[in-house]
Amino acid sequence: MPRLNKDTWAEARHRWESDPAATYASIGKEIGVSHTAVAKQATKNGWAKVGALAQVNERAQLLADRREVAREVATREPDKRPAPGSLEDAAQLRSRVIERHRSEWEEVNRFRIAAMVSMKAAFENKDVETQRDEWWKAKIASDTVLHHMRALDTKQIGERRAHGLSDADNAQAIIIERTYGALNE
After folding, report:
1. Is residue 123 a contact partner of residue 131, using CB atoms and an 8 Å limit?
2. pTM tops 0.90
């Protein structure tokens, strides 16, 4: 079988991805190779039919991971570099996001606790004038922490979505296919 150039494979990919009826066999017949050769090329390069949004999203995540990890890995020693786009790279990238999110929440929680301790101390103060002033300072600190928590939550939701970590990205869909009047043979 002939060895095909990149342009021929690119054209074959375009035809396969854009034609819902195209098969590996039909593409192979058009370009003069076996359906197995087309299947290998499709698997290797992540071919996806139009409308296969989950595959498109998965491919986009992989490409984004490769770019982000490549920037980070460029500073490592050559013998300690993992294969670009490996599952381990993707997992490490996301684990760093999760670790940072946890650290950010721990920091905000420390401020929340400090504000609550200040409110309690102000409430227990016997001097009414001092109590009122201290309580208002603690209230402002508490409100500030609340706004920081909301802002942090919004930021982290966006980051989780950007890294494919949000629950919505992992949601399962149930598809019910109706076959009214179909005969079971």
Report:
1. yes
2. no
Residues with Cβ within 8 Å of residue 89, at least 6 apart in sequence: 65, 66, 69, 73, 82, 83
CA dist 32 → 5, 9, 15, 16, 37 (Å)? 13, 11, 15, 15, 10
E strand or H helix at 67, and its extent? helix 53-73
The pair of three-digit structure tokens given for residue 103, joined into one six-digit string: 């650290």
For the chain, the helix, strand and coil percentages under 3-state DSSP, each to the nearest 5: 70, 0, 30
Six token digits for residue 155: 């930021």
Tokens matching residue 86 = 């490996």
Domain boundaries, the chain: 1-50, 87-163
3-state secondary structure of 8: helix
Nearest to 4 by CA among 31, 23, 44, 29: 31
Nearest-5° Cα angle at 41, 36 to 44: 120
DSSP-derived secondary structure letter, 76: S
The residue ranges of the chain whose pLDDT is under 50 are 169, 185
pLDDT tens-digit series, residues 102-116:
999 999 999 999 999
How is residue 64 written in tokens? 């984004």
